[in-house]
Specification:
With 233 residues, this protein is an alpha+beta fold. It has a single domain, classed as Alpha-Beta Plaits, CATH 3.30.70. The protein is 27% helix and 36% strand. It is built from six helices and eight strands. The protein has an eight-stranded antiparallel β-barrel, surrounded by five helices. Strand 6 and strand 7 form a beta hairpin. Helix 4 runs antiparallel to helix 6. The longest helix is centred in the middle third of the chain and has 17 residues. It is globular and about 45 Å long. The two termini are 19 Å apart.
């Protein structure tokens, strides 16, 4: 059964720059359906700041034919072994909105045990260059909403130049994530997400855009000195 994985790893500054230029993940990797290699960013940080784009902190989002293919890659491939030293979560597909080339949406969809189960959300898009200022205007308030929400366990953004942007978030419960999406959070200005989505519907920011929701099925390694981000996995 097809699975997805999301990886975070630290590299040296120069190694990170080199791999940004030359993607270290071969498209012919056995069992790999698609991958996106990106540089991590801090959600909600000022656009022109050293905390915005975190050179040396790498995020990789991947889809595999099965979990065996992923495990073989982490054990046998040279860059896979580097990823294995970081942190990653293995993900079973629940549902998607939109489309993004490369990834293949599985026919089989998993289910959470209950609305109180943890859930992982990933968004990924290819930006229209002229829409970037408007996207930042509407997007940064949403980033802050997700970053500061008490229901998130881990959240970040990532970018691949020239125009790929993505977000990743782990939520304690699906219910808390759904409440945020629909503007029912207890935080100040809770409708930031729903208002940004209305603006996107009015005039698209992206050439491609997809939001995916996953059931976490395995967590490995540590990130920023912490492991076990997902309870009871």
């Amino acid at each position: 059964m097809s699975i997805f994985s999301y990886h975070l790893v630290r590299l040296s500054f120069f190694d990170a720059i080199k791999r940004m230029i030359c993607n270290p993940i071969s498209k012919t990797t056995n069992g790999l359906i698609h991958s996106e290699y990106m540089t991590a960013m801090t959600l909600g940080s000022p656009v022109f700041s050293t905390s915005r784009v975190l050179i040396g902190k790498i995020a990789v989002f991947m889809q595999w034919e099965n979990e065996i293919a992923l495990q073989n890659y982490l054990e046998q491939d040279s860059f896979g072994r580097i990823l294995a030293k970081g942190w990653h979560v293995r993900l079973s597909f629940i549902r998607e909105w939109g489309k993004f080339s490369g990834f293949i949406i599985p026919d089989d969809k998993d289910k959470l045990e209950s609305p109180n189960s943890p859930v992982v959300a990933v968004t990924i898009a290819r930006m229209k260059p002229l829409a970037v200022p408007r996207f930042i205007h509407w997007g940064r308030p949403v980033e802050k909403l997700v970053r500061d929400h008490p229901g998130t366990v881990l959240s970040l953004a990532s970018v691949k130049f020239p125009n790929t942007v993505s977000t990743f978030s782990i939520w304690k419960t699906e219910k808390e994530m759904a409440n945020m999406v629909h503007g029912h959070s207890a935080l100040e200005k809770p409708k930031r997400h729903s208002e940004a989505m209305k603006e996107r519907e009015r005039k698209e920011f992206h050439f491609e855009f997809m939001t995916l929701r996953f059931k976490p099925i395995g967590e490995f390694g540590s990130w920023k000195g912490q492991s076990n981000y997902i309870p009871n996995i």
